[in-house]
């Protein structure tokens, strides 16, 4: 993969893009927001320049400033952006139009939204070609098909006639790349091109980017928050924070010798399956940019900051040739860098079982009368017979890609959805509304349900939509106390003040409404609400995936502290194995409604592996600068849960498939050789599952 | 059978079910009305014997469900008997009037759709500008004033007293004179359009504003496409879907509006027929006319659903 990584010194002469001292401001009701301040960098021909930053860093603003497509209230207030020596600000609207899509192309973040839902994707590629190249219609069409082939779409003719909703997420992203590359641009701007994709899909898209770089020799501006992706793909990186470049240099230099406290903090905050460390959060928040900050923008959150950091303007300093950092305390920062600390060994919980789930099933798709009249389709088997238990104070992680049924599982456990079959026992008692036929039975199960609701709480992925926007934080936290406890008004008040401080928010937050909180603060409130009534089990459904890396780390640490304080058990649902690795004692890997592997976290992260677990593990981009591509690529997309493959549900994509037995016989979870707590559902023998990650197993079809 | 076909068949089954329910309601309501049909026909001086005899002849002494089934049979065979007031077969009365009304409705819909969508698009492109506020103001005024006031104002302005440009009443068949047809159609159609336009303009505007701010419109601009292409090809197409629903709903409102407007412009349509029938307690005629109006409305919505499937590839018909 790194064959394309050339040293930047090779072509210093004529940069494709030259960004010099660019500032951008947005006019808002509260005054002007200085989103970018004097940002400078060059991109050389054929170079991949990575721009990393968290939300609010201004990275998207920069991408849009280059395309001269800032929102109406934004304007470039200083500096120049030159494309091949020509200042983009001087271009006429027509010249700009012919440049866009043709010389400078853009691949948007969410292809699901950026592709027009009611136009066939072929036409969406063709219209770009038609606009910029003087070709006959048949040439346009054949070039469209050729582009789809270039981005590894196996049936380009069929794909061209599809509408976006008929394609999977990965296919849509490929189409977006085909549009971007259709006129062979000299500069391609990628805005978070793999964010929102599943890890195995992300792996394939990243691999495709490699191929395209070689094929098209395009320069790339790669904008992302994902440092692991940049570590793999970029030749040089710039770390953007609050509108300023904090550190810039060759990827290898920046990642192996991070010389800015912010970069160091970011790297220490990324959960990584290769390091057994406790991630560390960056304290504080991105500063308000309506006032131009004096001194270092990061000083307020920096543990190295002294008074001089708050004064004057700070210039980039050279660390090594080509590697610069914006820091006055470079020596201290380098001699005593921020690093994540080694994690304590995981506890093995074997106390009483708090939750026992046996053969739980949830099928969707009960058909209506008229549907049955016309013959209905088979139901979607979202959860298809899973069994597990959670011990007191233990955290069980459930990992899987989108569509594997993990969120349905959470909702069914919470009794938000009625299970189709199976049993859920909470502290030994069965939670079962379906079996209640008589009124006294119903009343009994209802009171049991009330207890269950008190004891089992939930934190959802998106605090934006799980907090009632018209309630203050106080009202939000008071509700569970009213419902689940007999506390008096005064006791409730005390409890609310206690819990809000436990989630590291001050009591001043109690009068605020959700819109006055940042994403991380909202999630803290959601966590406080879950913990207010002192539950014994909290279900965490992707609790950090909507948050920035540094905030994510602080939430994970908070969850860890609360668990110690209250002895609560967690069921943590996540697609992010790094997050799972941080906090879980045991892990279950889910695929198409079934568990394919289950064991302690160590057992899951070490061989023997289920082939699917192996694929998940190898596809995670990591910030470690190892160069070997160890990815296991999965063929195709996740099959529909309406019609899952017969036999092993993973056989249609399995790179280690052994033959007929995989297609005919459904493997059961069986004890693996290494431990009696480790189970794997696979027909492979122990030896084949033992192949270490870095070694190539059968090269699969791309 | 493809999913789309299956969907259309399914919709059609729903259409029939709806019509059945509507027929029951109409029949029930008509029978709940006070007054005796036989006495209405014979007049207040008829003897009790004669009334009883006619009741027997009309089947009014049968149980209600038998009466209903008789009536339903009549509906399905297009043999609804005679109007009490006019003595003519009801089918002969209703069908020409219905055709007249459909012409008025059709012309109205054409005006509403073309001008409404155009104004909506212009508002959205210039959104929050001066043109937008002017359009909004007029459009709101249109919906705030009831049809009979708008109609009267139009008659006063264009139908005589001020400018005598258009005839204020009556109907001319297009086979006699196309110009006459158009001029007679103009004022009632305009009156109805002004009221109905609002929803279409507002809906198109808000959908267009959203579409123009969408990421796909943004992506289209960043491909280097021209402004017109972004507006027409990328934004408008997606904005039309909800507008079609609004238009279909408007169609129901239109059928109601016809009653007022036809009365006002002395337009010989089904609305006017219903008003006359109610005035005369012409029960069989009321039933038939209301059923026809209900059917037209339901069928209009059925057509809208089908059109929707043509335009929106995303609907999952299964």
From TrEMBL, chain B:
Biological process terms in GO annotation: transmembrane transport
- InterPro entries attached here? BPD_transp_1_N, MetI-like, MetI-like_sf
User: Which CDD domains has this protein been placed in?
Assistant: TM_PBP2
> In which domain of life is the source organism classified?
Archaea
What the entry lists under PROSITE patterns is as follows:
ABC_TM1
- Keyword DNA-binding part of the UniProt annotation: no
- Signal peptide per UniProt: none
Q: Where in the cell is it found?
A: Cell membrane
- Species for this entry: Halonotius pteroides
Report the family membership.
Belongs to the binding-protein-dependent transport system permease family.
Write out the transmembrane intervals.
12-33, 102-125, 137-158, 178-198, 240-265, 285-308
The membrane topology of this protein is: Multi-pass membrane protein
**What protein name does the entry list?**
ABC transporter permease
The record places domain ABC transmembrane type-1 at 98-304
């Amino acid at each position: 993969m790194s064959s394309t990584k050339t040293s930047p010194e090779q072509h210093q002469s004529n940069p494709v893009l030259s960004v010099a001292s660019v500032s951008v401001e947005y006019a808002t009701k509260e005054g002007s927001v200085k989103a970018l301040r004097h940002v400078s960098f060059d991109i050389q021909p054929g170079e991949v320049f990575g721009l990393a930053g968290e939300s609010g860093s201004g990275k998207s603003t920069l991408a849009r400033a280059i395309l001269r497509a800032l929102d109406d209230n934004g304007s470039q207030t200083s500096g120049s952006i030159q494309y091949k020596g020509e200042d983009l600000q001087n271009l006429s609207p027509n010249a700009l139009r012919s440049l866009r899509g043709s010389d400078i192309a853009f691949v948007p973040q969410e292809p699901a939204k950026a592709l027009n839902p009611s136009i066939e994707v072929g036409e969406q590629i063709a219209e770009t070609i038609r606009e910029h190249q003087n070709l006959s219609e048949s040439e346009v069409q054949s070039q469209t098909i050729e582009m789809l082939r270039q981005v590894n779409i196996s049936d380009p003719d069929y794909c061209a006639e599809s509408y976006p909703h008929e394609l999977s997420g990965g296919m849509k992203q490929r189409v977006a790349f085909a549009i971007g590359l259709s006129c062979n641009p000299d500069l391609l701007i990628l805005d978070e091109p793999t964010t929102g994709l599943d890890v195995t899909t992300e792996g394939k898209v990243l691999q495709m980017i490699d191929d395209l770089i070689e094929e098209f020799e395009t320069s790339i501006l790669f904008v992302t928050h994902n440092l692991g992706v940049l570590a793999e793909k970029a030749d040089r990186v710039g770390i953007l924070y609050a509108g300023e470049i904090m550190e810039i240099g060759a990827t290898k230099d920046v990642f192996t010798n991070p010389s800015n406290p912010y970069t160091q903090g970011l790297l220490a905050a990324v959960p990584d399956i290769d390091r057994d460390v406790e991630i560390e959060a960056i304290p504080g928040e991105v500063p308000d940019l309506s006032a131009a900050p004096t001194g270092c923008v990061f000083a307020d959150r920096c543990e190295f900051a002294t008074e001089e950091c708050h004064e004057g303007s700070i210039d980039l300093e050279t660390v090594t040739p080509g590697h610069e950092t914006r820091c006055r305390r470079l020596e201290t920062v380098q001699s005593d860098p921020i690093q994540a600390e080694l994690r304590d060994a995981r506890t093995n919980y074997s106390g009483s079982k708090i939750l026992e789930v046996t053969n739980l099933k949830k099928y969707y798709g009960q058909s209506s009368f008229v549907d049955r009249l016309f013959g209905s389709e088979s139901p979607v088997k979202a959860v298809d017979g899973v069994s597990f238990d959670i011990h007191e104070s233990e955290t069980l992680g459930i990992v899987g890609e989108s569509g594997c049924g993990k969120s349905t599982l959470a909702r069914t456990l919470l009794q938000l959805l009625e299970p189709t079959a199976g049993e859920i026992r909470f502290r030994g008692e069965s939670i079962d509304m379906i079996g209640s036929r008589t009124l006294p039975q119903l009343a009994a199960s209802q009171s049991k349900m009330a207890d269950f609701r008190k004891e089992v709480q939930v934190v959802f992925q998106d605090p934006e939509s799980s907090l009632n926007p018209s309630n203050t934080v106080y009202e939000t936290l008071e509700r569970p106390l009213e419902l689940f406890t007999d506390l008096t008004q005064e006791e409730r008040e005390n409890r609310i003040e206690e819990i809000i401080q436990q989630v590291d928010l001050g009591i001043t937050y109690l009068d605020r409404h959700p819109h006055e909180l940042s994403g991380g603060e909202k999630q803290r409130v959601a966590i406080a609400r879950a913990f207010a009534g002192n539950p014994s089990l909290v279900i965490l459904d992707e609790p950090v995936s909507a948050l920035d890396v540094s905030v994510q780390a602080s939430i994970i640490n908070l969850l860890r502290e609360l668990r110690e304080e209250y002895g609560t058990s967690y069921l943590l649902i996540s697609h992010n194995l790094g997050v799972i690795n941080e906090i879980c004692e045991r892990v279950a890997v889910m695929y198409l409604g079934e568990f394919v592997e289950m064991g302690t976290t160590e057992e899951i992260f070490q061989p023997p592996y289920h082939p699917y677990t192996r694929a998940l593990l190898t596809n995670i981009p990591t910030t470690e600068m190892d160069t070997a591509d160890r990815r296991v690529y999965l063929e195709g997309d996740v099959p529909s849960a309406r019609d899952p493959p017969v036999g092993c549900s993973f056989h249609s994509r399995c790179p280690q498939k052994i033959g007929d037995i995989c297609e005919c016989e459904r493997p059961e979870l069986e004890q693996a050789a290494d431990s009696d707590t480790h189970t794997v559902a696979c027909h492979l023998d122990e030896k084949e599952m033992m192949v270490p990650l870095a070694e190539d197993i059968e090269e699969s079809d791309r | 059978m493809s999913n789309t076909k299956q969907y259309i068949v399914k919709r059609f089954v729903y259409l029939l079910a709806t019509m059945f329910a509507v027929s029951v309601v109409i029949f029930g309501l008509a029978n709940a009305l006070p007054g005796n049909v036989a006495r209405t026909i014979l007049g207040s001086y008829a003897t009790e014997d004669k009334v009883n005899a006619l009741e027997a002849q009309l089947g009014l002494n049968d149980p209600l469900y038998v009466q209903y089934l008789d009536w339903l049979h009549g509906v399905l065979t297009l043999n609804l008997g005679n109007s009490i007031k006019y003595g003519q077969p009801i089918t002969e009365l209703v069908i020409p009037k219905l055709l007249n009304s459909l012409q008025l409705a059709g012309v109205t819909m054409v005006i509403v759709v073309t001008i409404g969508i155009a104004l909506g698009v212009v508002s959205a492109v210039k959104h929050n500008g001066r043109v937008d506020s002017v359009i909004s103001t007029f459009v709101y005024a249109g919906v705030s004033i009831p049809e009979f006031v708008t109609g009267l104002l139009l008659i006063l302005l264009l139908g005589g007293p001020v400018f005598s440009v258009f005839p204020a009443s009556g109907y001319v068949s297009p086979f006699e004179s196309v110009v006459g047809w158009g001029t007679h159609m103009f004022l009632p159609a305009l009156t109805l359009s002004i009221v109905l336009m609002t929803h279409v303009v507002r809906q198109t505007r808000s959908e267009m504003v959203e579409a123009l701010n969408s990421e796909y419109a943004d992506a289209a601009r960043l491909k280097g496409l021209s402004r017109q292409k972004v507006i027409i090809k990328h934004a408008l197409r997606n904005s039309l879907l909800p507008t079609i629903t609004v238009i279909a709903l408007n169609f129901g409102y239109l059928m109601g509006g016809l009653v007022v407007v036809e009365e006002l412009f002395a337009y010989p349509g089904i609305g006017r027929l219903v008003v006359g029938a109610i005035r005369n307690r012409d029960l069989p005629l009321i039933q038939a006319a209301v059923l026809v109006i209900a059917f037209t409305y339901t069928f209009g919505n059925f057509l809208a659903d089908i059109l929707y499937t043509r335009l929106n590839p995303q609907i999952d018909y299964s």
